[in-house]
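User: Design a sequence. Structure:
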């Protein structure tokens, strides 16, 4: 059982990692060229998050229920997205231009993304969506965030990794999305609300083990399953924000080219099993695994530049 739980921790939606092979950082990316790092903008802490009216909250929940996701256009201004992109460029260079993800607010401390994750207004929007969508009082637990960056050969390994999130509501914030003609964009595939919110944490873990494995994921990506389960394909645009029922909806991204960069911020709200010992143990394994990956990436980067 421990091996299965440990495997789940590594295969989970928000901590799925692969240790990239050491290689020289790739230069000349269009993202890096157009958005050179700026320490001043990296430290920027003022940004605008618009509030949503009760009518807009109602529309968001209706769209999540009826079409699988809700899009709020132009939620972030261009300066906010540009500052987030610059941070991504800096961190991507530390990882030799390969896939990485940062889990939790501490991992992005000192960046605009950390401030965004701690925004009281964003948390309030989550709370209202949760209450309107579930009919229950929202938990007083704040948001949980992840920065996920697909790039290089290791980024290709992250495609079609279908999973359920651990949190009821998920918000996806596209930071950098491939946009050149013919480029694979890494669009998100969503199978909306395939399950309910489980009251038993052990059943939830077993369900994830059964569905979050290579065989089940190969089946989920097939054209037959897409038609049968009425998959929705989400084509993301930076500046917009997308909400969906992450806990209940099976989802995973399509591939993007190894030479491209796909960066997204993920913000989660309301873990139904947050007080579970089993969940706490999985989270601990997940954080230790991520810390080891970061340490190895930093050591490789130092070796390549020495």
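Assistant: Done.
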């Amino acid at each position: 059982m421990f091996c299965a739980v440990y495997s789940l921790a590594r295969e989970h939606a928000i901590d799925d990692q692969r240790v990239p092979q050491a290689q020289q950082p790739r230069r000349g990316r269009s993202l890096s060229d157009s958005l050179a790092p700026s320490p001043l903008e990296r430290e920027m802490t003022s940004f605008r998050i618009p509030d949503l009216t009760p009518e807009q909250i109602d529309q968001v929940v209706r769209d999540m229920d009826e079409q699988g996701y809700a899009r709020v256009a132009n939620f972030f201004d261009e300066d906010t997205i540009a500052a987030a992109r610059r941070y991504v460029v800096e961190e991507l260079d530390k990882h030799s231009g390969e896939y990485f993800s940062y889990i939790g607010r501490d991992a992005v401390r000192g960046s605009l993304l950390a401030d965004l994750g701690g925004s009281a207004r964003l948390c309030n929007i989550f709370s209202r969506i949760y209450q309107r969508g579930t009919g229950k009082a929202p938990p007083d637990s704040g948001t949980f965030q992840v920065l996920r960056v697909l790039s290089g050969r290791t980024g290709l390994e992250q495609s079609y990794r279908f999973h359920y999130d651990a949190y009821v509501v998920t918000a996806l914030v596209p930071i950098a999305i491939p946009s050149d003609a013919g480029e694979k964009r890494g669009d998100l595939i969503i199978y909306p609300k395939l399950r309910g919110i489980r009251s038993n944490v052990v059943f939830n873990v077993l369900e994830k083990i059964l569905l979050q494995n290579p065989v089940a994921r190969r089946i989920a990506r097939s054209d037959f399953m897409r038609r049968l389960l009425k998959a929705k394909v989400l084509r993301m645009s930076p500046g917009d924000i997308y909400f969906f029922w992450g806990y209940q909806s099976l989802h995973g991204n399509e591939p993007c080219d190894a030479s491209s960069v796909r960066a997204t911020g993920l913000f989660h709200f309301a873990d139904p099993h947050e007080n579970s010992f089993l969940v706490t143990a999985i989270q601990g394994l997940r954080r230790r695994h991520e810390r080891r990956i970061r340490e190895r990436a930093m050591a490789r980067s130092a070796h390549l530049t020495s």
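The chain has one domain: 35-285. Strands lie at 70-72, 100-103, 143-151, 169-176, 188-191, 232-234, 241-244, 250-253, 261-269.
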